[in-house]
């Protein structure tokens, strides 16, 4: 986004990099994540108020360490290095960084030596979150220590320039003083203003869309998920009838999602939606396939084929609207950089770049929570906007083994019961993602006086903010009992329920 009031975060591959950006956005300051090896020239010529160097898994003294040009510190822009970022600052200023004999992972007590600027309004002692194997052994030239823990130098500051380093992670919520500290950096040291507001984003985005699109038509693949729906409503606000949405019903969506929700949209926002009933085509294409990656590929390719068939029928389409959001952008720009190995999800419903349209992605600067707030501000129902994420391949990755119409119906019914009960217990919004998985395992049961032989369903619920790590939810036994009893008695064909108590890692959230 074109604003001088922004912070740039250089990414050295930490799992927490996106979290830093979200914390800064929470302060209503716009920020972007760039790969650590972004050309110095680009950094020099981009108006900004401050730079943050993220953490990272490497060691600054390793042969293939991720280094930066030392000129970065001469730009007269304040710099804050976090963990690896601090070690890098130190390394580039003749400090000594070594493997620590006492490595710190988890909580540590921080003792502040200098309660000024970065540590203004922060108590002398507080709890912080550390995660480091290396530490500063010898202080860098012209730096002073401004905080320590029992085992390490925890914060440093240049004696003249606005360059700071932190050994701990202010961005994680375990660091109780974290937000105050980031606020001190962003407002007091960098001089940013809290100007990043959703309402302003909407009005700027609307103008930009109008200017870009002119009188052309735009086509958009509407999945029924939050991102594509918010994108559609935003585009519609800007260009109205010039937008046509295509909803491909794969038959692999949840019972009460997809078309039900989109019909409400159509009524409320007067969206122009074309619905394609493709359940049969998907089931036929998937017949006989059990391998998860093959299933994903089949669904992805067929989706593109069907979307294309419809899109080319619409006149004067020059643009393809997409609900790409900022984490997707960061992941794709990081491919050449260090975060590459963290995650590679084939986003089914994602369309190839070689379609004969130009891309328009009005949400590409927003994090998920900002997309949700944008949706609410546009008048989309909160229940819809705050729904759990749903994978692109849909129930196909929640039916283990071969997919049949019968299994889809069983899973939809069981899943709906679990979700209903979560809402009823006021727990839906407390957990991050909840669903049912259908196993290709049949077992013996007894109902009344009758022997049954039915499928096994797995109830899964996880707590997470970033979906990269997750804990299984400690749902009340009473709820699990009710869900189990209801599924077995109401869904004819499922006679056994298990609850998945695997965290990620070592498990994944989905079963496939
Ligand atoms: P895992 O199973 O990798 O899931 O722990 C993490 C998050 O990603 C979602 N997920 C997908 N989303 N296409 C998607 O659009 C996929 O193929 C896919 N696989 C997993 C999953 O639901 C969870 O939110």
Observed structural traits:
single chain; 512 residues; alpha/beta; Rossmann fold; GMP Synthetase, Chain A, domain 3; 3 domains; nine-stranded mixed β-sheet; five-stranded parallel β-sheet; binds xanthosine-5'-monophosphate
Please provide a written account of the structure:
The chain is built from 14 helices and 18 strands. The strands form three sheets. Strands 2-1-3-4-9-8-7-5-6 form a nine-stranded mixed beta sheet, sandwiched between helices. A five-stranded parallel beta sheet has the order 12-11-10-13-14, with helices on both faces. It is globular. Helix 5 packs across helix 6 (226-239), helix 6 (226-239) crosses helix 11 (368-377) and helix 8 (279-286) runs antiparallel to helix 9. The protein has three domains: 6-189, 3-Layer(aba) Sandwich (Rossmann fold); 201-386, HUPs (Rossmann fold, 3-Layer(aba) Sandwich); 405-499, GMP Synthetase, Chain A, domain 3 (2-Layer Sandwich), CATH 3.30.300. Strand 11 (243-249), helix 7 (259-269) and strand 12 form a beta-alpha-beta unit. It has helices at residues 17-26, 40-45, 84-91, 178-189, 198-213, 226-239, 259-269, 279-286, 292-311, 326-333, 368-377, 382-385, 405-424, 477-490, and strands at 6-11, 30-35, 50-53, 79-82, 96-112, 125-138, 143-148, 153-158, 163-166, 217-221, 243-249, 273-277, 317-321, 358-360, 433-447, 450-463, 471-472, 494-499. The site of xanthosine-5'-monophosphate has 15 residues, from loops. Xanthosine-5'-monophosphate binds at residues 296, 345-348, 389, 391-393, 433, 467, 504, 508-510.
